[in-house]
Every structure is written in structure tokens, then in C-alpha cells.
Amino acid sequence: MVNRSYYGHDTQLFGVEEHRLVGGKGDGMRLFEVRNGSGLEFTVSADRAADISRISYKSVNLSYMGSAGYVAPAYYDQPEFGFLKSFTCGFLTTCGLQAIGTPSVDGDTPCPLHGTISNIPADRIYYTEESGKIQIHARVTDAEIFKQKLVLNRVISCEHGSNVLTISDTVTNEGSSDEPFMLLYHMNMGYPLLSEKSRLAVSSSTVTPRDDWAAKDLDTWDKMLAPVPNFQEQCYYHEFKEKRPCAKLYNPDAGVGLAIRWDASQIPYMTEWKMMGERDYVLGLEPCISKLEGRAELRKNGALQFIKPGETRRFEINVEFFDNEAAWEAAE
Predict the structure, then answer these.
(1) Which domains does the chain show, CATH number per domain?
(2) Are 186 and 286 in contact (CB under 8 A)?
(3) Exposed / middle / buried, residue 160 (Cβ in 10 Å: 0-12, 13-18, 19+)
(4) What pTM did the predictor assign?
């Protein structure tokens, strides 16, 4: 820690400030602005499942903010692709907990694009600061009478003097029935971290295109483009043999990069969302527990996961940030 005698209040260098937005579709939304005093700054959106809307390192933006901007949950349009009307993107949008990917109807249950969890406000959220460690604690309840009773408990952590961010989640089934369970960490890289100069590396053992359109460029899945008018998105599934996968991106022009790591026994896949369109210019590196073909299709193929009554599933994502290329290259 810096010698305390040099500054009057902690927020001169680091800490958390809570704000509310005024005006527009984000009016009234609660935001926690976090600075670790070592170049890492990010925003946690309390009313959107404690997701991370913005992030920067050494004053360089790393994330993509969708054209919808901040949108309060009251504007959420659930059916099918209505999710996109309020898709902030940000650095992290949590998708699930009972649906991700293609909209479908599973039995008599409509399953909209990427589920509903990211449009649920935290029941409670607070922060702690102890010995240079900052943590945001949140509880988000995905529950409905006669249906699912799922609870997401999230802790987002960083430390003064460190360039690492940790997202630690537990999901518990507090109901009395087995429930379909799907989860995707929709992590979105944006300009200036993302450009045609960006270098992408993923420690995958196999890379599979999601469809024929993605297949035509399979050999350049790791090459970024300058923004293209009317670009059609391409998605690739990454699978891993190693226990701790790593997906990393660096832009030599911006002088910053990051590496995302997780436990493959918790999260076996990563979806790469390559979207090189004008204004819609974003690279998604998205650890997920299942593929994105929709809940009905996964059930049909025997690939749909369930969470049992009283069961708790645990997940952890670590993001390391870099301001030099050599350190980024060495990361694995």
C-alpha cells in the first residue's frame, strides 16, 4: 500500500463510489464505480445482475458498449430476440440461468435469447474494502411461483497493486425440483483494445464453426478485421484439453491486453463471437457450460444440464490485464 501520510482520503487513489444514472432508459440505475489505484477501473451494474458494464486499464477502454447503452430492466422485451433491444453488452453480461443461445420453446416453456438473468436487479448489493482488497457482493434471485427458484451469489474482487480481476459465482437451486441450468459469461472486447491490429490467442484443442457462414473463415478465426459495413456475425466453439483454459487479446497500438482464465471442469466451452460490423464492432470471448443451440435442441440431444434441489454450482473467472506485450505473450 502507498504510505497513508501522502493522501487525505482513500478515494484520492482507489475505492468504490455508488452512483445513479439520470435520464434516458437507464434512469435510476445503480452503478458501483471501482478503482483499484493500480490502473484498473470498472463499473458494476447493480440493476443488471451485478454485471460489469465498463472496464479500462491504464486509462484505455477494453470493453464494448452496445448501441442501446444503459437500459433499465423495466424496458426488457423478453420474447425471442427482444433481448437485443436492451443488450448493453459491456464487459460482462451474464446469460442464463435457464436458457442461453438460440430462442426456443422447450415443451410449453418459451426460452428467449440468452435467458432473463441479466435483466434481474440484485436483491442486495454492497461492497467491502479491507487491506487494499475491494469486493462487490451481490445476490440475484431468478425465481417464479410454481417454477424455478435459483439464486446467484456473486463476488467481484480486485486489489490495490494487482492487475487481476476475479468473478466468483455460486448458483443454488433453492426449489424442490430439478431445473434446467444454462450459463454463459458473455464477455465483450471493444475498441481501442479491439481493432484489426489486435492479436487473439486461445488455448483450445478444437475450434468448431457454429454454422456454414462461420465455417468459410475457419482458418482465420483468430484474425480481426477493420469495421465492415453490414458484417454478418461468425461464432466458433472452442473446447479444451487442459484444466485451466486461457483466452487472451492484445493490441500493440493501444499498448494493453488481457487474459481470461477459468476452470474447464466447471466451464468446458468457450464461444467466440466475432462481430466485425461498423458500430457493431465487438469480440465476444464467452466461457459457457453448454453450446448455444437453444434449450429445446440441447434437451433433444441429451446435452441439457440440470441443477438438483439444494445443489450449488461454483464458477470462477479470472481476468489479468497487461500493459506490455512480453508479459501478455508469456501468459498461459
Answers:
(1) 9-330 (2.70.98.10)
(2) yes
(3) buried
(4) 0.97
